[in-house]
Design brief:
4-stranded antiparallel β-sheet; nucleotide-binding; 13 strands; 4-stranded parallel β-sheet; binds arginine; 20 helices; alpha/beta; Isoleucyl-tRNA Synthetase, Domain 1; EC 6.1.1.19; single chain; cytoplasm
């Protein structure tokens, strides 16, 4: 496995060397290279350099061009405008670089130079509650980030911080004690749907009783105390709720084509043993102070509408712990026991204030510092077609499973319309890959921080920036390669490239750099954009450059080679987003 430097980085280096050779007095200088429409690349760095040396930029540029000479790498370097360089690389350099990528399993993508350990907190639904579109976003974005960072060589620890603790369990457990058969199953094989409908029914019944019956309410409150003090019978019943919910969660994750491993599910309750100590450490160090009976952390810049400071409450005045104490304990665990140097939280932007206060508290306590930092990969709200938070017509939150099923149904219609020789089973399999892919891609292709409209018609459209478009591009390439028969993809550096081939080739060459940027900025939408552009470049190439009917056998092979590398790059990129690319569609 050999990593392949991109042409952009090779040219950048060559220019930097030429700059310091031509202008030794300037010291190391950045040529500021970028892709350009005029030529392959444009370098603007000479302008700043000329200013610094008080020279004429065009003269300096000419001097640099002379010192570059002509090489296998550079076909043409031209001074333009006030002192830019327009740079064209040779066809040979493009094909040779791509051939080196093709020879590598990782497509020449290097591992990150400084890999560390990142804990990603994502896919965190709540026990005994239906999953909704917010949980979809966290799961989809988190899963993509896990894959992208692991591919970059980072050690990734997954944490599913499920909501499995809290006073609501008092009511649920008490109800179950009084109605012991409510969670029983007919057979050992419970479906996720059945598990959730059991939980829903129980939840509604318990809630109704809680709201109407004062005595039940009192018994439920006592039950909370029993739960918190670790009463065995109570804990065993609590565990039944968790187990029943997990059956449901796993069925949804499975439908989402997402692997969630049980040991990575460490819910809020997983930190119960640490809560006391966390509070003690915060109080002893003076980070948290007593205020009106509660243990609080204050911030200069967090104030309520009345101008009074709003504290982070780590321990309530009644002695109970909340969400913040758990998250602070989780930070200690992740940093001190899991050895993380980066913590990423894929959580709704509406929890940003919580995380801001939690992170700041952890910094004051010394759990986070310059070497160990935390970020919230905050995502926006999923909106309905009306631009308001996505709800059913009755105003209820939309059940995630219903959405997934609908997407799969729509996808089945699209697949069936195009299908020529697919069996019903194959159509069903493709429909799941297309439908789930459509949902994931729609989410991943907009910047996470933005809200987006959930529009299934658009998501499964064959035209435009959708996963189906990318999946079809992939399947089309595979079909061309199948049709090629004896002609096999092979790079021929001596074959001249048409403009569309060069554009496709130079874009293919950017895969590694795109991934590196995505991994360090936590912006999967940039990978989606890259892949969409790749498919667009391919479409242009395909319409301008006959592949199987190219002029010479070498040209046929070289074009097949471009097809093949495009397919592999699409396949890899989509897989990193958690999206399948069927071989035939
Ligand atoms: N369960 C929470 C919710 O549904 C999300 C948990 C986020 N993670 C965390 N460490 N607080 O809103």
């Amino acid at each position: 496995m050999a990593s392949v430097p991109s042409l952009a980085s090779t040219v950048q280096q060559r220019l930097a060397d030429a700059l310091s050779a031509a202008l030794p007095e300037a010291g190391p200088a950045d040529p500021l290279l970028r892709r350009s429409d005029r030529a392959d690349f444009q370098a603007n760095g000479i302008l700043a350099l000329a200013k610094k040396l008080k020279g004429n930029p065009r003269e300096l540029a000419t001097k640099v061009v002379e010192s570059l000479g002509s090489t296998d790498l550079l076909k043409d370097v031209e001074v333009s405008g006030p002192g830019f360089l327009n740079i064209t690389v040779t066809d040979r350099a493009i094909t040779e670089t791509l051939a080196a990528r093709a020879a590598d399993d990782r497509l020449g993508v290097p591992y990150a130079e400084q890999a560390g350990t990142t804990v990603i907190d994502y896919a965190q639904p709540n026990v005994a509650k239906e999953m909704h579109v917010g949980h979809l976003r966290s799961a989809v974005i988190g899963d993509a980030m896990v894959k992208i960072m692991e591919f970059a060589g980072e050690k990734v620890v997954r944490r599913h911080h499920i909501g499995d603790w809290g006073t609501q369990f008092g009511m649920l457990i008490q109800y179950l004690i009084e109605h012991p058969h409510e969670l029983d199953h007919k057979d050992a094989d419970v479906s996720g749907e059945e598990a959730m409908s059991n939980l829903n029914r129980l939840y509604k019944a318990a809630r109704a009783l809680f709201d109407s019956d004062e005595e039940f309410k009192a018994r439920s409150r006592d039950r909370v105390v029993a739960l918190q003090s670790g009463d065995e019978e109570t804990l065993a019943l609590w565990q039944r709720f968790v187990d029943e919910s997990k059956i449901y969660f796993y069925s949804v994750f499975n439908k989402l084509d997402m692997e969630i491993d049980d040991p990575d599910v460490v819910g809020e309750s997983g930190y119960n043993d640490m809560l006391d100590e966390t509070c003690r450490l915060l109080e002893d160090s003076g980070v948290a102070v007593r205020s009106e009976g509660a243990l609080c952390v204050f911030f200069d810049d967090v104030k309520g509408p009345d101008g009074n400071p709003v504290p982070l409450i780590v321990k309530k005045s009644n002695g109970g712990y909340g969400y913040a104490a758990t998250d602070l304990s989780a930070i200690r665990d992740r940093v001190q026991n899991l050895g993380a140097d980066t913590l990423v939280y894929v959580v709704d932007a509406r929890q940003s204030l919580h995380f801001k206060m939690v992170f700041e508290t952890a910094r004051r306590a010394g759990w986070l510092n310059d070497q160990v930092h935390a970020v919230q990969l905050a995502f926006g709200t999923v909106l309905g077609k009306d631009g308001k938070p996505f709800k059913t017509r009755e105003g209820e939150t939309v059940r995630l499973v219903d959405l997934l099923d609908e997407a799969i149904d729509r996808a089945a219609a699209v697949v069936r319309e195009k299908a020529q020789d697919l069996t019903e089973d194959e159509i069903a399999e493709r429909a799941a890959q297309v439908g789930i892919g459509a949902i994931k891609y729609a989410d991943l292709s907009t910047s996470a921080s933005r809200d987006y409209k959930f529009d299934l018609d658009q998501m499964v459209s064959l035209n435009g920036d959708t996963s189906v478009y990318l999946q079809y591009a992939y399947a089309r390439i595979k079909s061309i390669i199948r049709k090629a028969g004896d002609a096999k993809p092979a790079a021929h550096p001596e074959v001249a490239l048409a403009p569309a081939e060069r554009a496709l080739g130079l874009h293919l060459d950017q895969f590694g750099e795109t991934l590196a940027e995505v991994a360090s900025s936590y912006e999967p939408h940039k990978l989606a954009a890259y892949l969409y552009q790749l498919a667009s470049h391919y479409t242009t190439f395909y319409s301008e450059c006959p592949v199987l009917k190219a002029d010479t056998p070498e040209q046929v092979e070289n074009r097949l080679f471009l097809c093949d590398l495009t397919a592999r790059t699409l396949h890899r990129g989509m897989a990193l987003l958690g999206i399948r690319t069927p071989e035939r569609l």
